[in-house]
Design goal:
This protein is an all-alpha fold. The protein has helices at 6-25, 32-56. Helix content is 66%, strand content 0%. Helix 1 packs antiparallel against helix 2 (32-56). It is elongated and about 55 Å long. It starts with 5 loop residues before the first helix and ends in a 12-residue tail after the last helix.
């Protein structure tokens, strides 16, 4: 998947919506909006970092020698 391509943007939106809804609906604290936004934003950041790590090793033409 291309980083910040169309598919990545769609998955980011779905991830944000699910994390936000889960945290907003299931929280009874007075600051539930802030907590839900922060958790959803951190989920998006984690998804992006994971894709950066995944795409970095994807096109590696020099794999380690004698890898067991």
């Amino acid at each position: 998947m291309k980083l910040f391509g169309r598919n990545h943007i769609i998955i980011m939106a779905i991830t944000f919506a699910i994390l936000f809804a889960m945290n907003y609906i299931g929280n009874s604290e007075p600051d539930k909006l802030e907590r839900a936004l922060l958790t959803a934003a951190c989920g998006i950041i984690g998804l992006t970092i994971g894709l950066i790590i995944y795409n970095r090793g994807k096109n590696d033409n020099s794999p380690p020698q004698n890898f067991d």
